[in-house]
Write a structure and sequence with these properties.
Radius of gyration: 21 Å
Structural class: alpha+beta
Shape: elongated
Number of helices: 9
Number of domains: 1
Number of strands: 4
Length: 297
Amino acid sequence: MTIYTHITSNKRRSLVLMLLFFAIIIGLGYTIDQIQGTGSWFWVVIALLYGIGSALVGYYSGDKIALWTSGAQPISKEENPYLVRMVENLAITSGLPMPKVYVIPDDDINAFATGRDPQHASLAVTQGAISKLENEELEGVIAHELSHIGNYDIRYMTLVIVLVGTVMVLSDMFWRVRFLGRGGNNRNNGAGGVILLIGVALLILSPLFAELIRLAVSRKREYLADASGALLTRYPEGLARALEKIAREGARIERATRSTAHLYFANPLSSGASSLFSTHPPIEKRIDALRKMAAGQ
């Protein structure tokens, strides 16, 4: 499989996962309407309006929140000419506008990109990545993050997080309405009982399904950025070696949270987390995929 087919495949699969999110949200709203016995699309409309409103907030301010949370500090070419020139050269090669560059005062190796589009993007790199990675390795990491910008992952992943939050809020709203005595008509017939059971099961499991889909989308996007970054540098081995160093030395970021972990080049949370609930694919699989690309497989 070539780099180009990797990109095409991951884009197609990620689109399918995003459509599943919309199906879950609409299904939740419809189920609540049926359980409440309103006979309308009230909760479907509420679900969609809430999702759109949250998406707009995240769209315009999500990058500022992510940078503040990580403790990233802006730098200029005079302060760190090595890093800024590297980002500048790779941005020119990729045909992207120059993003704002930040340094995270952390000794582990990591990085992330954020923003609503390539014209309003920022790229943050840890001090550990700058000092511990060789030139080709750091180029691979930066190319990976620029690929997130060029592929609009920075916008896409913000919307995915918003959709996960929407599912969880809707579930919480249902339980409050249903069990605090504010619900609509109760359906006591057989069909209503079946709908109630199905609805309760859906509302209990939907947050878990939403979280698993978010993690799956994040993983697919990491594979895509690896492929795109290798295409940009024409040297997949540099990125593979950077991942090997992370596997040995760690990528933990002290101020990273569950809500921002998916943005990073490698999982910044505890390495002891199970692979099922990790925001990133296993490092070994990413290295293997890059080396297969280098070999033309």
